[in-house]
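User: MUT7 Exonuclease. Structure?
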Amino acid sequence: VSRQLKEEIRRGFARLEDPLAGLLAMLESSSDWKGKGPSLGHCITTELQLWIKAHPAVPQSGTKLKKLQARVLGMLSQCPANLLGPLISIYQLHTADRNCLLEHVSHLYLQGSYKEAAVLSMKLKLQPDQDVEKMCTPLLLQDKANLVEDYVAEYPELQRKLLQTLDTWCEPSFNIRDITRPYQGLPGYKPEKFNRRVLSKLVFRLLEKFNVDPALCPNVVNQRHLRTLNYLFYKRFVEKTMTEENWGDHIQSTVGENRWLQGHLVQLLLRHCPARGAARWARRCQVPPEMLPRAVAEELQKLHLQDRVEEVTKADNSESSKKKDYYQLPIPRENIHFLQTWEETLQCWEKVLQPGQVVGVDMEWKPSFGMVGKPRVALLQLALKDEVFLLDLPRLLEQAEAEGEKEKLSHFIQMLYSDAAITKLGYGMSGDLSSLVASCSALKDTEKQMQGVVDLLAVDKQKVDGLSPQHSHEERGARQPEKGLSLLVQHVLGKPLDKREQLSNWEKRPLREEQILYAASDAYCLLEIYERLCKDPESFGLGSDLTECLVGKQSKKPKAKKQLNKQEAPSPSGQECQGARTEPSGPPAPISPQEFSVVCDNMLQGLGRYLRCLGVDVRLLGNEDDHRKAAEIARQEGRVILTSGLPYQTLRSQVGEGRCFSVNCSEKVKEQALQVLKHFNVQVALSDIFSRCQ
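Assistant: Predicted structure:
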């Protein structure tokens, strides 16, 4: 709007005896302001709002104002959202009779103008006097969850009522049709967006956003725990990629004393174990005997201490026979130190913070299995040539806070990462740092300050091919194919990592011996890989300048990268560390869309359809599919997972770094697609467009 027009509008107001009545008369006799775009009516209204601020004596009160307010209320149902705020301010609608305002909103609601009723309620702050279930139900049916979120945003009590309502709808015996029946024929109704799976995801998002105790929503929590149980049984009895002790820890912490989950545990045990095995686990998980089928209850009575000892011994023998198939630590057990006090940790610092030191760095955290909250690091591993230090982060942070030195740990970590004279080795370090920041917020700028960092994921992307993984796989018999760091260890050192402890409960203390050895191996193997590759890069299919690339330029200060998402690390995929972005051999080899296979999580269906238009081989998860189905498809069909937000943390651990990419959901589909194509170096030709069936 030109300055000349604005000045003319303001002069017009000054000449009017009653500017408020004048504006209302103009709006009532015109209709140009009813559209969504800019209009002269909108311009005049906003200018009056500004003019009134400069002339505080103008606003009226008393009977005259009430009459104007009544006329304005009659117009609000036709009013676009951008005019609501100015009109409410000009005519002081927040001072109008509250019952009158509620009656007007109710009239809008009964007309089927549910969105307009909700928006006006928010503008007038009427929510505490309304029925949150009644106001929000039609909005959810129209897939307006963001508007529902805004509706309760400022009212904790309404947040709790909404969450309890949604949780009730997710109860297995609840009939969803009882909710949808009164709204048959509702414009914009999306039945595929209104089911228990979608509502459950919404509940968890709102629990986290509003920081509400998940215990308020027992139905969705139980359903999520049940999916976790099914997943754990799949990992143990189908994939066979979890040790018995590790699996047992998670089963116990997931089921607890919940009778409903205990009942499902018994059913799963009978499906996967003989009666004797089911009885043994029922005892360990303290399932009440009255919940057990007769055959399991009889076996439970027969169990004696000697039986359990024999079974454990047999299992131990079986486990030890498998160890020779995996990478083994070359240092003695006494050189692995589990640090829980600051006195021990200070001795560790003196050894680690030495110029010229090479340190393997890794981190572990308890798997969230899709529950609320971001993973917090439970263990920080630092490997040197002759010893490995395992830092109990929660314990050390607790001690530091009790001593009034909360920043002590973050100071050490920042010194380590910012020292160019110390070489830090990692694998997909950016994702680790994201979880480290969740544990210690003082480390939020660490990634920008990193120097002397080598992320071996960058090497892995050069297709290290010193050994044939297929040959090794055949020698070891049927087993899940290696991926991520384990595959790199197999290529370079001859045997893969034993990853059966990867999904352990890393917060439980004391750690089991298997966990300690796994954690130490994860960090120490980085030293051996780095040493082997630097000595003879060409024999592994790498360029002869690998040593110069990794050692000579690794301390170059990285450029800060725009934060993509409040939930995510600066690297969108969490798969490469910026400090290590030294481009040892440039970007990944270019591939065509026909060679690129992905599975899109259900919040990225638009991106999936766009990529398919470009010729990419795409599989889409349905709205009711669990996120973990993406991992199953990725493993079975060799696809890359495209996901976003919290599911990324869970999925990346199931397929390994490099095979799971986190997309920024705040971007438009085209920008998301460009991000994916650039990251994986997918070259799209004209002939690729619409080359696949849409």
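Residues 513-535 form the longest helix (23 residues). The chain has 32 helices and ten strands.
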